[in-house]
Write a structure and sequence with these properties.
Elements: H1 3-18, E1 33-34, E2 41-46, E3 55-60, H2 79-94, E4 98-103, E5 109-114, H3 120-131, H4 147-154
Antiparallel strand pairs: 1-2, 2-3, 3-5, 4-5
The structure holds zinc ion.
Length: 177
């Protein structure tokens, strides 16, 4: 992973959360969108986490354990701190503060919570999802009639182009304590 493709992916995700006008009738789960794998990492952009504030989550793609079940492929020691620092810096442009972070090393996942709600049209699409299928209220969000697929297809979803490209970076296993 080059530093620039990593930063570009973050900008793409943040721009989707904060700057993208979604069309009427759009539907998306509160889980949001996830990048392809790069450098053994995926990044998820969650429009509505706790308190309806957005989250940026980093996950290790390949989990490796030793024979005792200890995780060998944790996030790097300062990885979540560094991600938080970058997101804080970008926040001055997108207009959010960073308010909280969870996990990170020695876990395989880390979460940063951003302190401002996402674009109102994205929030509306999540709330449409939460209300469930309008034609079959008994089935709720799990209705299989196609309402979710149709609504999702209206959404503007960014292209994390190039993020699946092969990485030359090799990670050194870190023992979990
Ligand atoms: Zn339905």
């Amino acid at each position: 992973m080059t530093e620039s493709s990593f930063l570009k992916a973050l900008e793409t995700g943040l721009s989707w959360l904060y700057r993208t006008e979604q069309p009427p009738g759009g539907v998306i789960t509160h889980h949001g969108i996830i990048t392809g794998a790069l450098n053994d990492r995926r990044y998820t952009f969650v429009p509505c986490g706790p308190k309806d504030l957005p989250l940026v989550i980093v996950n290790v793609v390949r989990r490796e354990y030793d024979e005792n079940g200890f995780l060998l492929s944790a996030l790097d020691e300062n990885e979540l701190e560094e991600l938080t620092a970058i997101l804080r810096m970008m926040g001055s442009f997108y207009g959010y503060p960073v308010v909280e972070r969870w996990n990170g090393h020695p876990f395989e996942t880390g979460t940063v919570q951003l302190g401002s709600p996402v674009h109102p049209t994205l929030l509306a699409a999540v709330n449409t999802y939460r209300a469930g299928c309008p034609a079959h209220p008994d089935a709720g969000v799990l209705c299989a009639c196609g309402w979710y697929r149709d609504g999702y297809q209206r959404m503007t979803i960014p292209d994390f182009g190039g993020f699946d490209s092969a990485s030359t970076h090799h990670r050194v296993p870190v023992a979990a304590h």
